[in-house]
């Protein structure tokens, strides 16, 4: 019995391809973004629209799925903490093996890192494939603009709002002398 829910927007039915190598089907679909499609810093918001442009091909081993995913990621600039919105476009190609072919591949292959995605009946789940395609395309340290000056390390002021912002910082080695000038001013 299949564990996949055919009503799920990221589960696709490949029944119309049959097991006839060379048969192809294309599809465009807009789906809601799944959870965890990104990192803590920047991600595609759960439920936001994700455009899929897919091509299914029946091959001897299973179904080869190629496609493009387009979405919008949001997060925070790592320099100034302003909101960042970035377009995301990623391509992928994944083979979903027929169950009998997947078992054969597991018997022949000794490489543990070689994961084989398997069709469950005629159903395939694209959610892990999308995650594998989208997350690496997201910037590790997103910025609102390339020359973002960030925040003042002394007071947290946005440096983009005041480019001349500065603090008179006295070298801590001379700070004891500063007390002398303050005391001198009080005496006068």
- Give the tally of structural domains: 2
Count helical runs. 3
Shape: rod-shaped
Structural class: alpha+beta
- Estimate percent helicity: 10-25%
Count of extended strands:
9
The rounded distance between the terminal residues' Cα atoms is 92 Å
Structure description:
The structure is a single chain. The chain is of the alpha+beta class and 188 residues long. The protein folds into 2 domains: 127 residues, no CATH class; 38 residues, no CATH class. It has 3 helices and 9 strands, in the order E-E-E-E-E-E-E-H-E-E-H-H. Strands 2, 3, 4, 5, 6, 7 and 8 form a 7-stranded mixed sheet that branches. A hairpin with a 3-residue loop joins strand 5 and strand 6. It is rod-shaped and about 95 Å long.
Q: What would you say about this model in short?
A:
The chain is α+β, with helices and mostly antiparallel strands and 188 residues long. The chain has helices at residues 99-108, 127-134, 175-187, and strands spanning 11-13, 24-32, 37-38, 42-44, 49-58, 62-76, 83-97, 117-118, 123-125.
List the helices and strands and how they pair.
Blueprint: E1 11-13, E2 24-32, E3 37-38, E4 42-44, E5 49-58, E6 62-76, E7 83-97, H1 99-108, E8 117-118, E9 123-125, H2 127-134, H3 175-187
Parallel strand pairs: 7-8
Antiparallel strand pairs: 1-9, 2-5, 3-4, 4-6, 5-6, 6-7
Annotation keywords:
two-stranded antiparallel sheet; about 190 residues; alpha+beta; 2 domains; about 15% helix; seven-stranded mixed sheet
């Amino acid at each position: 019995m299949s564990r996949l829910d055919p009503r799920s927007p990221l589960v696709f039915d490949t029944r119309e391809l049959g097991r006839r190598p060379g048969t192809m089907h294309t599809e465009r679909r807009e789906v809601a973004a799944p959870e965890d499609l990104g990192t803590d810093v920047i991600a595609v918001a759960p439920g936001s629209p994700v455009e899929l442009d897919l091509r299914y091909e029946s091959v001897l081993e299973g179904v080869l799925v190629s496609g493009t995913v387009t979405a919008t990621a949001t997060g925070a600039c790592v320099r100034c903490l302003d909101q960042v919105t970035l377009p995301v476009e990623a391509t992928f190609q994944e083979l979903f093996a027929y169950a009998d072919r997947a078992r054969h591949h597991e018997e022949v292959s000794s490489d543990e890192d070689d994961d084989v995605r398997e069709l469950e009946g005629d159903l395939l789940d694209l959610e892990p494939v999308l995650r594998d395609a989208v997350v690496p395309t997201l910037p590790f340290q997103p910025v609102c603009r390339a020359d973002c000056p960030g925040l003042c390390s002394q007071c947290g002021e946005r440096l983009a709002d005041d480019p001349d912002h500065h603090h008179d910082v006295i070298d801590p080695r001379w700070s004891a002398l500063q007390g002398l000038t303050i005391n001198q001013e009080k005496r006068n």
